[in-house]
Design a protein that fits this description.
The chain is of the alpha+beta class and 152 residues long. Helix content is 28%, strand content 15%. Mean pLDDT is 75; it is low at 1-25 and 145-150.
């Protein structure tokens, strides 16, 4: 095989391998203080942590969140789209990420991206960890909820 054919074969293999990715890059927490949606989800994280502290689990439905809130409820809609956030338990497993995506924008309305809340299960003697993240859009077409694996 000549050098050109070997290079072309190597390039074709690299393109095919890149298309077979089974995990996504690590989540990045960003946008706080710069994006109203990220700020709102951060406030919702506080509500979720309060609920978790009282009940030792996340709420089964998002309407349950306001039952333990001491002050006025944070709107559960994206300020950009006006659509309600999607809340799902047990959450969506993002390949390569620790934890599950439990709440996210209904559509990619932030320059083609969505914001969401990633819940990481508690370590022994610790609380659950919640982070505001912006997952790659590709995860929404590839993910399915995992049955009977609630974060406790």
């Amino acid at each position: 095989m000549n050098c050109r054919c070997a290079t072309a074969a190597l390039l074709a293999f690299a393109v095919l391998a890149a298309g077979c990715r089974t995990s996504f890059p690590p989540p990045v927490t960003a946008g706080l203080g710069t994006d109203p949606c990220a700020d709102r989800l951060h406030d919702i994280c506080g509500r979720l942590l309060l609920y978790y502290a009282v009940h030792t689990e996340l709420p089964g439905g998002i309407a349950d969140l306001d039952k333990t809130a001491p002050d006025p409820a944070v709107p559960l809609v994206c300020p950009a789209s006006g659509k309600p956030y999607v809340y799902t338990l047990p959450g969506l497993q993002v390949p390569g990420w620790s934890g599950r995506l439990i709440m996210y924008d209904a559509e990619p309305c932030h320059s083609g991206k969505r914001w969401g809340i990633l819940a990481e299960p508690p370590r022994p003697g610790e609380s659950i960890v919640l982070r505001v993240v912006s997952p790659p859009e590709a995860v929404f077409s590839a993910l399915r909820p995992q049955p009977e694996d609630r974060l406790r």
